[in-house]
């Protein structure tokens, strides 16, 4: 037995697999959203031992069956949950190609074509966000979480020049991180991973639209400085996960002069708006950030795990990750600086950038512009439909995230849970519960480029039907 299998095996496997995947890619649009899994049933469905090898086709069938039966079908256009996309066809092909070639991106010399593609994308997208071309640096990461950790480490090395060798013990003052109370908890995990601990993360209160209250941030900064701490990093969220709130990044940036913190923009989701000619203005001020987290595996519709960390400090990453002890920014070799092992958390590294490069080649910026603009417009369409059908909306985001419930059941805690559960039962769409501004709501997000007006109409129809059922039971 060779790990290549035989050429006859491969020639039988590829075309069959293409048919199976193509079937899933098209038919999954009509499938129910999920099963209600019983853990034992899922565990029992695995092949538990590896003592008697099976033919590859049998193994593939087994996996496709399991993933079809036991997963929330996030690629289905009726999925209105978190930002898990349907993956574009070129991005899927990119991951297949990457797996076959398996380029090693740790060092430029091992995979120069791949490293240069990632470099180009970081540069180009950094410029889209308004960073000056000669200042841009960055790296592909596995997700927003890794990009956030990269940001905290870059900020630490920036604020404490000896951090690389002394670590947190070399910091005279406690480094403090600030983020809104509605920010993604990835920043808390980043603080833990970097050895700061979650106690050093200040969660600043938010206003009725879940945006950071700037006077509250000012007050906290002043208090921490008074107590001898050092403001390290302020996280401005441009598109919160829950309700799509956008922090006032310009106001936050205006405090940099006084407090000298690193300003990190969390545009993990909302960053996609920069590619929409019509809606890019929603992110105005992002060019003032020191660095940005932007997930490609959310609004750019590529398979996990793909995120971008982009900063406008050309030596921040090298300062943070270079493992050469006598590193001198001025003397470094430009090509060496592109090598990701001196440049990022990871060492051996997958070619993440290809799943963005290939769709960009095929669709161009114009394709992304159209798709993202259309999703924002569809969000507005959903808003109007909800209002016309007697639902009340609780958030005021311009992004396609809508938090709503029926005003009649505003104070009935069971109502939203009932609606959520009946979607689980019926499987015709997937929405979630979210406490928007402290109020339990239903949350629907247009996050799938295949979603269209008829899907939205079906969603409204289902919502109305489930509400009527609830009303009948509770009258
Ligand atoms: C998803 C998300 C994150 C975390 O990113 P991952 O890619 O899941 O690691 C951080 N911030 C925001 C606003 C997000 O939506």
Lay out the secondary structure:
Layout (H helix, E strand, L loop, with lengths): L6 H21 L11 H7 L10 H14 L19 H13 L10 H17 L8 E5 L2 H16 L3 H4 L8 E6 L5 H8 L7 E4 L9 H13 L3 E8 L11 H5 L2 H4 L2 E5 L24 E5 L11 E5 L4 H6 L12 H5 L15 H35 L2 E3 L7 E6 L6 H14 L5 E5 L2 E7 L7 H21 L2
Parallel strand pairs: 2-3, 2-4, 4-5, 5-6
Antiparallel strand pairs: 1-7, 6-7, 8-9, 9-11, 10-11
Helix pairs in contact: 1-3, 4-14, 6-8, 14-16, 15-16
The site of pyridoxal-5'-phosphate has 14 residues, from α6.
Compact description:
The protein is 43% helix and 12% strand. The protein has 475 residues and is α/β, with parallel strands linked by helices.
């Amino acid at each position: 037995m060779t790990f290549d299998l035989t050429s006859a095996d491969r020639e039988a496997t590829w075309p069959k697999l293409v048919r199976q995947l193509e079937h899933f890619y098209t038919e999954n649009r009509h499938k129910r959203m999920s099963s209600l899994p019983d853990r034992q049933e899922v565990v029992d469905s695995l092949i538990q031992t590896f003592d008697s090898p099976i033919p590859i086709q049998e193994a593939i069938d087994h996996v496709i069956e399991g993933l079809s039966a036991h997963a929330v079908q996030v690629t289905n256009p009726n999925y209105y949950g978190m930002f898990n996309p349907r993956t574009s066809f070129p991005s899927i092909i990119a991951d297949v190609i990457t797996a076959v070639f398996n380029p090693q991106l740790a060092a430029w010399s091992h995979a120069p074509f791949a490293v240069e593609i990632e470099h180009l994308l970081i540069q180009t997208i950094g410029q889209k966000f308004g960073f000056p071309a000669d200042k841009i640096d960055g790296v592909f990461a596995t997700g927003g979480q890794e990009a956030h950790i990269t940001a905290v480490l870059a900020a630490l090395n920036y604020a404490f020049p000896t951090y690389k060798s002394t670590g947190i013990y070399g910091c005279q003052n406690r480094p403090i991180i600030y983020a809104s109370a509605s920010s993604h908890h990835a920043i808390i995990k980043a603080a833990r991973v970097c050895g700061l601990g979650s106690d050093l993360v200040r969660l600043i209160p938010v206003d009725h639209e879940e945006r950071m209250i700037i006077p509250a941030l000012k007050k906290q900064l002043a208090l921490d400085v008074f107590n001898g701490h050092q403001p390290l990093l302020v996280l401005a969220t441009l598109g919160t996960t829950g309700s799509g709130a956008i922090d006032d990044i310009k106001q936050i940036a205006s405090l940099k002069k006084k407090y000298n913190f690193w300003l990190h923009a969390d545009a993990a989701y909302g960053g996609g708006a920069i590619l929409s000619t019509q809606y890019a203005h929603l992110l105005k001020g992002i060019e003032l950030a020191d660095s940005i987290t932007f997930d490609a595996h959310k609004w750019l519709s590529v398979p996990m795990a793909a995120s971008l960390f982009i900063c406008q400090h050309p030596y921040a990453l090298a300062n943070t990750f270079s493992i050469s002890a006598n590193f001198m920014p001025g003397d470094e070799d430009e090509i060496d600086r592109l090598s990701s092992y001196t440049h990022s958390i990871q060492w051996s590294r997958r070619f993440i950038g290809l799943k963005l490069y290939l769709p960009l080649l095929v669709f161009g910026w114009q394709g992304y512009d159209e798709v993202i603009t259309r999703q924002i417009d569809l969000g507005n369409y959903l808003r109007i439909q909800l209002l016309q059908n007697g639902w009340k909306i609780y958030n005021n985001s311009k992004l396609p995230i809508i938090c709503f419930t029926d005003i009649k059941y505003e104070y009935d805690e069971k109502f939203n849970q009932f609606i959520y559960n009946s979607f689980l039962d019926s499987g015709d769409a997937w929405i979630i519960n979210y406490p928007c501004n402290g109020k339990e709501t239903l949350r629907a997000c247009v996050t799938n480029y295949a979603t269209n007006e008829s899907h939205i109409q079906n969603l409204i129809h289902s919502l109305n039907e489930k509400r009527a059922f609830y009303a009948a039971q509770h009258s």
